[in-house]
Design goal:
single chain; alpha+beta; 850 residues; five-stranded antiparallel β-sheet
């Protein structure tokens, strides 16, 4: 036995690697980076080839909805050259920076946004790749491992899923996430002023992407890393160094937040007035637990991290606990294996920072299914309750896992003089566990899982009953149809599960073969690592391409072309021109039976009561829920006060006149004969104690919106107005709309006595000012939703202007923060360049003297 061991040792010692084994290592670091980034660019272009090399574009439904919401603002900016702050066509009007934030001060992300116009979405996937590559390089100092981390994060299935769904701002924020984490880690390690400035730049770029939820999640991950570093500094008695690093990060955070004062100062101002910041009636509150926890990740769904379509993939074949889904969260078997290998073999503070981060964000992604953690966080942790769709946390899990997997790949590499890198036994133990699990899933998975969505049978029966009223659920035909439908769905789900379970096992076995060849010195490390990168890329790109399919691409070249324009739109637009243009009337569209809150298409063309936004003004949500609809259906008083002149529906309501019929769509246009003007006088003001009393009175059939206005007792107006108005005498009065823009309106009014002028514009106190004959006047909340201004008898000019101080201050602070940060970076950059030139000059002088 001893002789055999000695012969083996002599054989190893006498081994001479072929010339090509060290080929990659002989490249300079710069050349390795160039080659790696070039590979990432090729992968980017090839993945989005159906977009770049065809006439089709990725135009998602949410993107179309956004364009419809923003259209009036874009038209205003094109006509005036100024920024649009108020969107007048959606939901009766709302702050425009909640739809399309204005970024007046250019920063580093401005350049990337310009590239986006030419090469979306490749522009930001390449941004993501480059950031992830540099981050992984900073952590591992290994180019091929960094390449693998970039591919693993960039092609995680969630990213193509959100692109197809149109969640573009989320994708942009995830693209900036590696840059923010890189700047954070660099600040923790270098503790210099320059690193703090770089963190400010990266933080601002991430926030300017417009998806605070992602920035918040990345901050949580960074905070966990910071805590681990803090604990380690205490253990190593290096607390002063940790405090210095923290100070650098605080400085960077302050400057970064200054650099995003526009638009977030205005966002912070409006948030308490939205559905995410106030409860019904406008009081303090926020999102309800049930609403925020919708789309929590089920425990069983975590299986998709390693087997992509373990839960059927996207709806309607998806059979997990969510209502619907566009696709799974998937990391791939190779990434899971390398992560497990890192945990097993490289237990340092970096590993613990990543592992704890992954465990925490996965726990948060479980949402309502893990209330023991998520409920206290929701109730007490700052801003945690401001975000919904907990499964989004898994995008950060994928980000951290890719970095952890890169360290696992590096751990396989032999160092000079060591015994062969990570012990082969450790590698194969971890490999065996992952492969064994996948083998069990392949053999027994179809028996262990149900492949039927909870309450799926009941939902199908409900759909049948909705289409066929009066049919009994126990009808044999219904039962046979449901059973057949379920059987077909289950068969397809079984096929998808089996195919992906086998796929995951095969790619893992391929990686195992590469590792085995490397350990036997048949191939060098760079070949093994390069092949692993290739396998990961092919695996994840193949699964991602299921979502970037040709049938999901649009033949149009511009989002604007994707917004339909029907015959009834032409009719309404013609009537608007006759009436005098924008501000003449509003439209309530019930086209296709859709709820107005889920359809922004009409707002592309004209002023509408509908729209599509997750952060509507609270008063408008109240209007929709409590005032627009009542037991009898549509409340005509609500339509009157909101100047709804036309109703688009398949059938009308009593008192409305049919004026146009669109045979192509089946929709008709009905005209409201009692519509009120954009502004009108009332003869009576009634005080109400609270919003419930107001809604009750407003829905009363005896309520006449043309003569009576409802105000809250806290307004301080109602008593005086009621005394001065004789409710039995209508009197003489007139209101003429002189000029109208979304952010500026002017009326010429005349009245024989003091009255309350009710303006059919949404009440929003933060930024709107009113003036009567040039004298600023308080705006009163009328009928819960509208604005009111008391006007004295005689002729008057009444004007409204939207000019929020938060917007002006935001631009000022952003400009100051940007100037400080970038000027200091330029100063330090020029100083460093001068120092290098001086050193180079001295070295040349010394060389010439010799």
């Amino acid at each position: 036995m001893a002789k055999k061991t000695k012969r083996k040792q002599r054989k190893v010692e006498s081994y001479v690697a072929p010339q090509w084994h060290g080929m990659w290592d002989r490249l300079s670091t710069t050349k390795q980076h160039v080659v790696s980034l070039s590979i990432l660019l090729i992968l980017t272009v090839s993945f989005f080839a159906p977009i770049h090399f065809s006439e089709k574009q990725l135009v998602a439904s949410d993107t179309v909805q956004w364009r419809s919401m923003a259209q009036s603002m874009l038209e205003y900016e094109e006509e005036t050259g100024g920024a649009a702050l108020w969107a007048g066509r959606v939901f009766g009007g709302m702050p425009g920076y909640m739809i399309s934030p204005e970024l007046s001060v250019p920063q580093i992300d401005t350049l990337v946004r310009e590239l986006r116009k030419m090469a979306w979405p490749s522009s930001h996937l390449m941004l993501l790749f480059a950031g992830m590559y540099l981050l992984a390089w900073y952590v591992t100092r290994e180019s091929l491992a960094s390449l693998m981390a970039s591919v693993a994060y960039g092609f995680t299935t969630y990213l193509p899923v959100i692109l197809v769904a149109g969640h573009n701002s989320k994708f942009v924020a995830l693209a900036w996430a590696p840059w923010m984490m890189l700047a954070f880690i660099h600040s923790m390690r270098s503790k210099t002023l320059v690193s703090g400035l770089l963190f400010a730049v990266a933080l601002a770029a991430n926030l300017r992407a417009g998806h605070v939820q992602i920035t918040y999640y990345v901050t949580i991950a960074a905070g966990i890393w910071w805590l681990v570093e803090g604990v380690q500094s205490v253990r190593m008695k290096e607390l002063s160094s940790f405090i210095r690093a923290t100070g650098v990060l605080v400085l960077g955070s302050v400057l970064g937040l200054m650099m995003v004062a526009q638009p977030y100062l205005a966002h912070a101002e409006v948030m308490p007035f939205t559905t995410r910041g106030s409860s019904a009636g406008g009081g303090a509150g926020g999102m309800a637990w049930e609403y925020a926890m919708a789309w929590s990740q089920g425990f069983g769904e975590l299986l998709t991290l390693i087997i992509a379509d373990a839960r059927g993939g996207a709806s309607p074949l998806y059979w997990g606990p969510k209502t619907v889904t566009a696709g799974p969260h998937h990391l791939g078997a190779i990434v899971v294996f390398l992560c497990a290998l890192t945990v097993w073999t490289v237990r340092d503070k970096t590993t613990w920072s990543l592992v704890i981060g992954i465990v925490v964000v996965v726990a948060f992604s479980l949402g309502e299914y893990l209330p023991i953690i998520n409920r206290p966080m929701f109730d007490y942790f700052p801003m945690f309750s401001s975000f919904r769709v907990p499964e989004t946390w898994l995008s950060i899990a994928a980000f951290l896992a890719a970095l952890l997997a890169a360290r696992g790949l590096v751990s396989l590499r032999r160092k000079s003089g060591d015994k062969g890198g990570v012990a082969a036994g450790s590698t194969w133990k971890v490999f065996g566990v992952i492969a064994g699990f996948l083998l069990i899933m392949n053999v027994f998975g179809t028996s262990l899982l149900s492949f039927e969505k909870p309450f799926e049978r009941e939902r199908i029966i409900s759909q049948i009953q909705a289409q066929n009223p009066g049919i009994s659920p126990s009808d044999p035909r219904v039962q046979d149809f449901v059973s057949q439908n379920l059987a077909e769905s289950k068969e397809t789900r079984l096929e998808r599960f089996g195919a992906d379970a086998m796929r995951s096992l095969l790619v893992l076995l391929l990686v195992g073969a590469m590792i085995l060849l490397y350990q036997r010195r048949t191939i060098p490390y760079w070949t093994m690592a390069g092949l692993i990168v290739l396998i990961v890329a092919i695996d994840l790109m193949g699964i991602g391409r299921r979502h970037i399919r040709d049938d999901r691409l649009s033949p149009v070249s511009d989002v604007e072309e994707s917004v339909p324009r029907y015959a009834f739109d032409e009719f309404i637009l013609a009537q608007r021109e006759i009436a005098g243009g924008e501000g003449s009337f509003r439209v309530l569209s019930l086209e296709g039976g859709s709820h107005p809150q889920q359809n922004a298409r009409p707002s592309f063309h004209y002023e509408s009561l509908g729209g599509y936004s997750a952060a509507k003004l609270r008063v408008y949500q109240d209007f929709m829920e409590e005032m627009l609809f009542n037991d009898a259906g549509l409340n005509t008083a609500a339509l009157d006060v909101m100047q709804v002149q036309y109703l688009v529906a398949s059938r009308g309501i009593p008192g409305y006149n049919l004026v146009f019929q669109d045979d192509q769509t089946g929709m008709s246009v009905f005209e409201n004969p009692d519509v009120l003007g954009r502004a009108f006088f009332v003869d009576r003001v009634t005080q109400v104690a609270d919003h419930v009393a107001l809604w009750r009175r407003f829905s009363d059939p005896s309520f006449d919106a043309s003569t009576e206005a409802l105000v809250y007792e806290t307004s301080g107006l109602a008593a005086s107005m009621t005394v001065s108005v004789d409710a039995d005498t209508l009197g003489l009065h007139s209101v003429v709309l002189e000029s109208y823009e979304a952010e500026r309106q002017s009326f010429r009014v005349e009245s024989d006595r003091d009255r309350l002028l009710v303006v059919s514009e949404v009440y929003y106190p933060a930024g709107w000012t009113a003036a009567v004959n040039g004298v600023e006047t308080e705006i009163v909340q009328v009928n819960h939703l509208l604005r009111g201004v008391p006007v004295a008898s005689g002729e008057s000019e009444v004007s409204f202007v939207f000019d929020p101080a938060s917007q002006r201050n935001g631009i000022l602070i952003t400009g100051l923060g940007t100037a400080i940060t970038y000027s200091m970076l330029l100063f330090f950059g020029f100083t460093a360049m001068r120092r290098r030139r001086m050193i180079s000059s001295l070295e040349k002088e010394e060389s010439s003297d010799e």
